[in-house]
Amino acid sequence: MGELRSIAAPFVASGPSGVAVRTRLKQLTPGDEKVLRLVGGHLGSLASKDLKARCRDGLEHSGQAWAVRKRELTPASSSRWAGSITKATHDQWALARRCQLAHIQNLEAGIRTIEDRLSLPVGQKGTKKAPGGYRSRREWHAKARRLRVLQDRLTAARADREAGIVHVVRGGKRLARTRHHLETAQLTESAWRGRWEAERWYCRADGESGKRYGNETIRISPDGEVSIKLPAPLAHLANAPHGRYILACRVAFAHRGTEWADRVEANRAIAYRIHLDTGRDRWYVTASWQTPPTLTLPLEAALAHGVIGVDMNADHLAAWRLDLDGNPTGSPRRFLYDLTGPAQHRDAQVRHALTRLLHWAQTCGVKAIAVEDLDFTAEKTREKHGRRTRFRQLISGMPTGKFRARLASMADATGIAVIAVDPAYTSRWGAQHWQKPLTSTTRTTTRHEAAAVAIGRRAQGHPIRRRTAPPPHDRSDRAGHRTAQAGSGVPRREGPRPRIPGPRTRSVLPGCGVNAGDQNAQHRPGRSTEHGFWRQDPLPLGP
After folding, report:
1. Distance of alpha carbon 250 from alpha carbon 336, whole angstroms
2. How far apart are CA 398 and CA 376, in angstroms?
3. CA 205, CA 103: separation in Å to the nearest integer?
4. Quick one: which of 101, 349, 442, 451 has the fewest CB in 10 Å?
5. Per residue in 292-321, is it b (16+ CB within 10 Å) or e — as a string?
6. Nearest to 221 by CA among 167, 272, 147
7. What torsion do the CA atoms of 407, 409, 415, 420 make, to the nearest 10 degrees?
8. N- to C-terminal Cα distance for the chain?
């Protein structure tokens, strides 16, 4: 058995740093929709021009260039609209740079995998930790050609990164490519054009503390009145003083409405975004604001009432409650969800499953939930898994990173801490050491439920592997030693186990076996026995 990799210590995940709530703009008049479309289209064109200028600057960008771009946008909009557009441009450029770095790392990992497999003989079998050679000469030749393609892509990507060049498509590259496959997407050209224009619109405004209702550009009063500061070219459409347009509808935030109202009445900063859902033909407004960082509980305090270990799978969450000693209590729970369909449906399914999990944790009185610190971003590459297309689809559809972030956000409102643990060997050791002992005549423990126990024990600092049954009494060498043995650096590992004073059964007289832990009491030449003192006499020198 090879050496085990080092396992990171568990830690309490940090809570959310902001809040975003959304509601629908109902009962809009045709005039309101016309104004929203004009504002979004005009500001969207300014955002496209600003993004082009930012990409042209590349790595030579400076604060002075930022001020110049903002001054150029101000006459065509306003100072606040210009500040919001330039800030969004910087965020989008920074996101493109991070994605570019991730793409380079993905290409490097694929090239390493192909080079390692090409260096092996054709047909050589692999192991659980490393793949073997390719199956045939035909596959070997195809992968050799793909290696050259990946190397060319890597060279081009590195050159772009060194030059500060990023490739960004406002509206999304996927939607842009859909224009050439309208029949496959079941869209008409006009329907695609409507979605494309709506995605490229820009109608968002950053908040500002101390201003009326926390935002001077898009303002929502406590009674739900929505007003927009129109850009300078559209000021003639205003129906209120100071170039503002008031929508005919009234809005109310059902989720976190009290928090939103408190911030509005205190004139604290709130950012708003108005967008159109072309699939439903509905207008929505999203309010977002920052929250002070929540103080995370110490790990010992979070585990004071036990922990719930959770193992995320493709179609359900497997959870089991553990007491303070790491022992599973009660019965395991499953929280089912369906990750097929559009992104909104998948996100709703995960939210519903997490809501049921948190309600069960509150019922049990547990203040901590342990999950794996896992993300399949680097594990779903085509080169690593090869022909295992179904497995690649499986791990690609599991939102592991978003799962922990959403769980931490939802648990913060309930006072439950989220503990992230190292995912190494949890499924393997859980099935090996906990699946069979936890299976009874009335309950069949699955591999995922056993992994939930392993995750919970790792969060508590308890070992996952259990000591196996002792070897046969006749010869320990015939069956081998136990699987969980002390390491070579553990002090007194060669000594005997501690002996509990007194007889083990009632049939043994008191005082018998008190020297069982003494190595000098064994039957060895030159050493004493348990029931008497014996020593070999010296050999006689004469007959």
Report:
1. 37
2. 8
3. 31
4. 442
5. eeeebbebeebbeebbbbbbbbeebbbbbb
6. 272
7. 50
8. 60
Indicate the helix (H) or strand (E) that contains 287: strand 282-290
Tell how far CA 343 is from the center of its chain: 16
Strand ordering across the sheet containing 244-250: 218-220, 225-229, 244-250
Say how many C-beta atoms besides its own lie within 10 A of residue 457's C-beta: 27
Nearest to 267 by CA among 197, 216, 211: 211
pTM higher than 0.85, yes or no?
no
Q: Report residue 218 as tokens.
A: 């898009």
C-alpha closest to that of 215 among 271, 256, 287 = 271
Q: Is there a contact between 251 and 294 (Cβ–Cβ < 8 Å)?
A: no
Location of structure tokens 């043994």: 508
Count CA atoms closer than 13 A to 254's CA, side-chain side: 2
∠ CA 410-412-418 to the nearest 5 degrees?
90
The encoded tokens of residue 517 equal 């832990």
244 DSSP assignment: E
Residues 6+ apart with CB under 8 A from 500: none
CA atoms of 250 and 256, how far apart (whole Å):
17
Compute the distance between CA of residue 209 and CA of residue 264 in angstroms, rounded to an integer. Answer: 10
The number of beta carbons lying within 10 Å of the beta carbon of residue 179 is: 13
Three-class HEC string of 158-198: HHHHHHCCCCCCCCCHHHHHHCCCHHHHCCCHHHHHHHHHH
Give the E-state strand segments of 416-527 in sequence order: 417-421
Residue 353 burial by Cβ neighbours in a 10 Å radius (0-12, 13-18, 19+):
buried
Instruction: Write out the chain's pLDDT in tens, 543 residues.
Output: 456 778 888 988 888 888 899 999 999 999 999 999 999 999 999 999 999 999 999 898 888 999 999 999 999 999 999 999 999 999 999 999 999 999 999 899 889 989 998 999 998 887 777 788 888 999 999 999 999 999 999 999 999 999 999 999 999 999 999 999 999 999 999 999 999 999 999 999 999 999 999 999 999 999 999 999 999 999 999 999 999 999 999 999 998 899 999 999 999 999 999 999 998 899 999 999 998 877 778 889 899 999 999 998 888 899 999 999 899 999 999 999 888 777 788 788 888 999 999 999 999 999 999 998 876 455 556 666 555 666 555 555 556 667 777 888 888 888 899 999 988 889 999 999 999 999 988 889 999 999 999 999 999 999 998 765 555 555 555 555 555 555 566 666 556 555 555 555 555 555 555 555 554 544 444 444 444 444 555 555 554
Among the listed residues 434, 439, 436, 465, the one whose alpha carbon sits nearest the alpha carbon of residue 450: 434
- Please give the Cα distance from 229 to 245 (Å, whole number): 7
